[in-house]
Automatic annotation (TrEMBL):
UniProt superkingdom: Eukaryota
Similarity comment: Belongs to the helicase family. UvrD subfamily.
GO cellular component: nucleus
Broad EC category: isomerase
Record-level GO BP terms: recombinational repair
Annotated residues for binding of ATP: 25-32
Organism: Hyphopichia burtonii NRRL Y-1933
Key words, A-Z: ATP-binding, DNA-binding, Helicase, Hydrolase, Isomerase, Nucleotide-binding
The name this protein goes by in its record: DNA 3'-5' helicase
Keyword Oxidoreductase tagged: no
Length: 711
């Protein structure tokens, strides 16, 4: 466990379990190894039960890798690494909601994906009445224009769903629910009304968006001592946490008041210099906030770098020393090789792309095949910068791949098959039911869908009134409501809707048979799972829609593979009963295997999808130069890294260059720092200064302030 660790790493790993510790881990300093060894130390030497340790990671993949590596370390000890309460903040929080949601009236809620939450927000806007619109028209322009978009001028009353959602998400990231916001003196009346109605409709559909997972969990654990058995909390990538996640960490670690040395025991690992997710409300200031809350908090800095040359480390540090009030770091390279940093300034982005291509061809022509294409990456601040580089790569026959694009689960064909899996799994998934009626096309026009939805909403509203008056009355499902709606339609439409509902019922019968099997992993059960998936894919019309397109077909087969490989969480992995509590307080979750699979995907979507996908793509495509945004490259490394576009207005980006916007400039600086620290051996920087701007834009005329001293 301690073998191969340097002195500072050992000090961090073996710090007392009872205490507050910040491990400041710069790039390439062995952060992951230290975190895994720290958990192993708490289990083996401090004797803490795995069920009493919480570990939060940035992605699900990171959590799975940690469990695998810990299982190796713990082999033969009788300790099961899977007993840890481990995962992303969202997955841990949803697990707590599934167990104790009844305490805040959130029993049997599901996770809304982006399409669900966008659709519900659209419904809110579409249902604004004349009185609402009149009230909004009397508000100052500055209070409503920030939510408007010219592209939405002819629909949704000119309001932009993405802009509204971003503001709602920002409030939730700071732990502010709609009721609190409405009562604050400086609230925006428009946003307050939309936020309140959005929350109402989400509750009507028994849905939680990703931000709600954190808010609702905080509501439970701050009011009820359901985690008072926890003895230590570890948080990875602490620089990427926001305010509500910081508060969750405090609550996770609160412990039991009467058990000695079991309160507020926390280890965080991170690097404030790598905080580049401000647009997601992450805040580097959480390091200082934690020290302010825990006055006795200790700090251990890892300073030995095992990734980059001293030249790269010196440049990276000089970049960050431009930031005011920053603690100086002196990372020490453990690499013996020395290579100079290269910078070139060109007259246009086209010439810059030619220069990059020329350098790559030179590296590839070196004798003895020193480098391969996949040893090289080109990291840009914004995706639009890659177009001209891609053109030049194509001209020069340089193979490349772009780590970008839609996340796997957002692709049209994948989203479509998931909708069908969702309606088979649950008879109450209104959003998925409506989408499956629309796609693939079923002789139901836009007007017909509108009528069906209106009638469905009336039935749901009436049922909610009944539930309010008779709380114990049985609640009809969306499936049954749609049957009722179908009976009021024309005979032609009735036939289409009923045929669709009958198909779903038939698949659900197969699912019920599957759930009766005792072993989810035997060959016979796997065959039944595969048969169910194939039936849904073929009979839904999706095979006819996508089967002729190889890429789309392969994506759907990937969903099938993941469904076949999916292992539902075992009963042994349930949360421990809290001290003073009893088993009866927990919600009994007897979900079918398909519901559990969909739930796991929903939590997977809340990861930093770009980084997660990119890590997997970079591993699997061995013969291509990698093109990526800097954000997409976080956590990755290459022997050779190009960072183009080091010009004012590009890096730093133009939106961050306001005279009083120091926080934004600092985030841009950290972005550049992350880019340079991806390089192991060779770092090639480039900029361009042009005389005239193209397509009516201002010319890029200055080298970036970040490298002026260097140049």
């Amino acid at each position: 466990m301690l073998c191969g660790l340097n002195a500072q790493q050992k000090k961090a790993v073996t710090a007392p379990a009872s205490g507050r510790l910040q491990i400041i881990a710069g790039p390439g300093t062995g952060k992951t190894t230290v975190l895994i060894s720290r958990v192993a130390y708490l289990l083996l030497y401090e004797g803490i039960s795995a069920k009493k340790i919480v570990v939060t990671t940035f992605t699900k993949k990171a959590a799975n890798e940690m469990i695998e590596r810990l299982s190796e370390l713990l082999r033969g000890t009788g300790i099961n690494a899977s007993d840890l309460i481990i995962g992303t903040f969202h997955s841990i929080c949803f697990r707590i909601i599934k167990t104790y949601g009844l305490k805040i009236q959130k029993e049997d809620y599901s996770i809304a994906d982006e399409r669900d939450s966008n659709s519900i927000l659209l419904e809110v806007l579409q249902n604004l009445n004349s009185r609402d619109l009149e009230m909004f028209s009397r508000l100052p322009d500055k209070d409503v224009d920030i939510f408007k978009s010219s592209r939405e001028e002819k629909k949704h009353h000119g309001y932009d769903v993405k802009k509204i959602k971003k503001h709602i998400s920002k409030l939730k990231a700071h732990g502010i629910i709609s009721k609190s916001y409405s009562g604050s003196p400086d609230c925006n009346l428009f946003l307050s009304c939309i936020y309140t109605e959005y929350e109402v409709r989400m509750n009507q559909n028994r849905l939680l968006d990703f931000d709600d997972c954190l808010l609702c969990c905080h509501s439970i654990i701050s009011k009820f001592p359901v985690l008072n058995f926890v003895e230590h909390v570890l948080v990875d990538e602490f620089q990427d946490t926001n305010e509500i996640q910081l508060q969750l960490m405090y609550e996770f670690a609160r412990g039991h008041p009467t058990i000695k040395n079991c309160q507020n025991n926390v280890t965080i690992v991170g690097d404030p210099d790598q905080s580049i997710y401000g647009f997601r409300d992450a805040q580097a200031v959480n390091f200082e906030k934690m020290k302010s809350t825990y006055k006795d908090c200790k700090t251990i800095s890892l300073i030995e770098n095992y990734r980059s040359t001293s030249e790269i480390l010196n440049l990276s540090e000089s970049i960050m020393r431009q930031q005011n009030k920053r603690v100086v770091k002196n990372l020490q390279s453990q690499m013996k090789a020395h290579f100079p940093i290269i910078h070139s300034n060109m007259s246009s982005p086209e010439n810059q792309a030619k220069w990059i291509s020329c350098q790559i061809k030179y590296f590839m022509a070196l004798p003895n095949s020193i480098f391969k294409y996949n040893d090289i990456s080109v990291l840009v601040r914004a995706a639009y910068q890659t177009r001209v580089i891609e053109n030049e790569f194509v001209k020069n026959g340089i193979p490349y791949m772009m780590l970008k694009g839609k996340a796997f689960w957002e692709r049209k064909e994948v989203a479509a098959i998931l909708d069908y899996l969702r309606v088979v799994a649950s008879p109450n998934d209104r959003m998925a039911y409506l989408r499956t009626l629309v796609f693939p096309k079923k002789s139901l026009g836009e007007k017909s869908i509108e009528i069906i939805n209106e009638k469905l909403e009336k039935l749901i509203t009436n049922d909610l009134l009944t539930q309010h008056q008779l709380p114990n009355a049985p609640r009809p499902t969306i499936h049954l409501f749609l049957k009722t709606v179908a009976s009021t339609l024309s005979s032609k439409l009735q036939l289409v809707v009923n045929k669709h509902l009958d198909f779903i019922e038939n698949c659900r019968s197969m699912l019920e048979s599957l759930n009766k099997t005792s072993n989810n992993n035997d060959a016979a059960t796997k065959r039944l799972v595969g048969d169910l998936f194939d039936k849904i894919y073929e009979k839904s019309g999706l095979k006819a829609e996508f089967g002729m397109e190889e890429d789309r077909e392969l994506n759907i087969m990937e969903v099938k593979r993941q469904f076949l490989d999916f292992e539902p969480p075992s009963k042994e992995n349930e949360l421990s009963t809290y001290i003073g509590g009893n088993e009866e307080e927990k919600t009994k979750n007897d979900e079918n295997i398909l519901s559990q699979f969909i739930e796991a995907i929903g939590l997977f979507e809340s990861d930093n999808q770009t980084g997660l996908q990119n890590e997997e793509s970079a591993e699997t495509d061995k013969g291509k130069v990698i093109l990526s945004t800097i954000h997409g490259a976080k956590g990755l490394e290459w022997p050779i890294v190009f960072v183009p576009g080091l010009s004012e207005g590009i890096l730093p980006a133009s939106f961050a260059m306001g005279p009083e916007d120091e926080d934004s400039i600092n985030e841009e600086r950290r972005c550049f720092y992350v880019a340079t620290s991806r390089a192991k051996s060779l770092l090639l920087l480039s900029s361009y200064c042009e005389e005239f701007g193209k397509w009516g834009r201002k010319p890029v005329s200055e080298v970036s302030r970040f490298i002026k001293d260097f140049t």
